[in-house]
Amino acid sequence: QVMKALCYSAKLVAGYHAKRNPDLAKRYAIASSKISGARATLRLIDDIPMIQYALEYGLGHDEPDRIMAMLGVTANVVDLLYYPIEKICWLAEHKIVDVKYADNWDNLNSIFWVLSVYLNLMRTLRNFWLNQEKLNRSHQLSSIDVKSLVKHRLELMSIIRISLDFVHAVSTLPKGYLWGGKLSTFQVGSIGTLSACLGIYQIFAKRRLIN
C-alpha cells in the first residue's frame, strides 16, 4: 500500500504539473513508472500464495451463504488466470520473450483486472449487506458489539476503496469500452492515491482492533 501511495502520488503530481512545469512533470512521471514497475515485478511471486489460498478456500463452504461462495470461487478462478496473463505481459514488456499480439495480451490483462476487482467489490458489498442485517437484529435486541460496529464501518471503507480501484481498472480498457482511456493522468493519480491512503488507514485500524 505504501508503494502504491508513492506510485500514484507521483502520478498525481505529474498530472498536475503537466502543463505548468513539463520538466517537473516528466521527472515525477518517471518516478511513478519505476515504482509501478517494481510493484508489477513483486507481483510475479504472488502465484504460490494465491494457489494456496484458492485450495484452502475450496468451494467456499465456510461462507455465510451460497452467493458469497459462488462469488468467492469465481473470483479465485479469475485471479488464477489473471496472474499468468500478467506475467506474459511483463515478459513481453521487458522483451525477455517474443510475444505475438502483445497489445491483445495487454487488453486481456486489463479485462481480467477489471473482472477481479469487480468480483471483489461484489463480495464486499454482499458481506456488508449480510453484516448490516446482523447489526439490525442486534440493535433490536440492544446487544450491539462495539468491535463488530467498527469492523462494519471499515467494510464500508473497503467498498469505497475497491470502487476507486474499479474506476481505475476500467480506465485501462481500450477506448470505446465504458470510460476506458478517458481519465487523465491527474485523475488516475488522484484515484490511486486516495485508494492507497484508505488502504493504509484500514491496516492500522484493523491492528488496533486486534490489540
Task: Jot down its keywords.
mainly alpha, PEX11C_met, Peroxisomal membrane protein 11C, membrane, 211 residues, peroxisome, PEX11, single chain
| Amino- and carboxy-terminal Cα gap | 21 Å
By DSSP (H or I, 4+ residues per run), the number of helices equals: 7
Structural class: mainly alpha
Q: How many strands, which pairing sense, and closed or not: the largest β-sheet?
A: none
Radius of gyration over all CA atoms, rounded: 19 Å
| Order of helix and strand elements from N to C terminus | HHHHHHH
Q: How would you portray this structure in words?
A:
The model has no long low-confidence stretch (mean pLDDT 90). The chain contains seven helices and no strands. With 211 residues, it is mainly alpha-helical. The chain is globular, with a radius of gyration of 19 Å. Helix 1 runs antiparallel to helix 2 and helix 5 runs antiparallel to helix 6. This is Peroxisomal membrane protein 11C.
Topology:
Blueprint: H1 2-16, H2 22-42, H3 47-57, H4 66-93, H5 102-140, H6 146-171, H7 185-210
Q: Summarize this, please?
A:
This protein has 211 residues and is mainly alpha-helical. It has helices at 2-16, 22-42, 47-57, 66-93, 102-140, 146-171, 185-210.
